[in-house]
Amino acid sequence: MPQLTALTISITVLAFIDTYLTATILPLPVWVTFVGWASFFACGGGTAGLVKSVVSNWIGVVIASCSLLVIAAAPGSPFVAALAVGIGSGAMIVVSGVPFLRYPPAIVFGFASLVSTVFGTGHRVTEISPNHPTLIAALAMLVGAGFGLASEWLANALTTKPQVTSQTT
C-alpha cells in the first residue's frame, strides 16, 4: 500500500493503543506521549532519531525541573518566575550547541511537557513520590518516542515496496 496510507493506518492503530493504555493501566499524560511521538519524527525517526529525541526531551525536562524548583523557592514572585524561565530558556539554547542535540525544539518539547505535566496532574516538583512530575514526564516522553518508532516500523512493513526484477541481456 502507499506510504501515506500505511502511516495513517499505523498511527491510527497505535494512537488508539496509546490513548487506551494511558487512560487505563499506564498513568502517564497522553498529551506528553504524543509530544514525545512527534519529537521522534521531528528528530528524523529511526534509531538515531529515537535516541536524539529522548535525550533532548529529557534535557528539557531536567532544565524545566530546575526552573520550577527555583520558582517554588520564591512562591508568588513574577520576577523570580520570569528569571527562572528566562535562564532555563537560555540553557536550552546553550545545550543545543552540543552536536548531537542540534534540534532545540526537542529540548523545548521536554521543557513544555514537564510544565504541562505539573499543571495537568497537580503534582509539584517539590514532592517526593512515585508521581513526581519529572519522572512522569520523562517516562511519557520515552513511551511516546517508542510509539513513534513502532509507528514507523509498522508503516514501513505495510508500505508496498517496488518489485526488483532482474534483466538478462
Account of the protein in words:
- With 169 residues, the protein is mainly α.
- It has one domain.
- The chain is built from six helices and no strands.
- The chain has helices at residues 3-24, 30-42, 46-73, 78-95, 104-121, 133-158.
- Helix 1 packs antiparallel against helix 6 (133-158), helix 2 (30-42) runs antiparallel to helix 5 (104-121) and helix 3 crosses helix 5.
Secondary structure: elements and pairs:
Blueprint: H1 3-24, H2 30-42, H3 46-73, H4 78-95, H5 104-121, H6 133-158
Helix pairs in contact: 1-6, 2-3, 2-5, 2-6, 3-4, 3-5, 3-6, 5-6
Features:
single chain; 169 residues; mainly alpha; 6 helices; 0% strand
Work out the helicity level.
over 70%
Largest sheet: none
The secondary-structure class comes to mainly alpha
Overall outline:
elongated
Report the sheet-strand fraction. Answer: under 5%
Amino-to-carboxy terminus distance = 32 Å
Rounded radius of gyration (Å): 19 Å
Question: What oligomeric arrangement do these chains adopt?
Answer: single chain
The overall pLDDT average reads 94
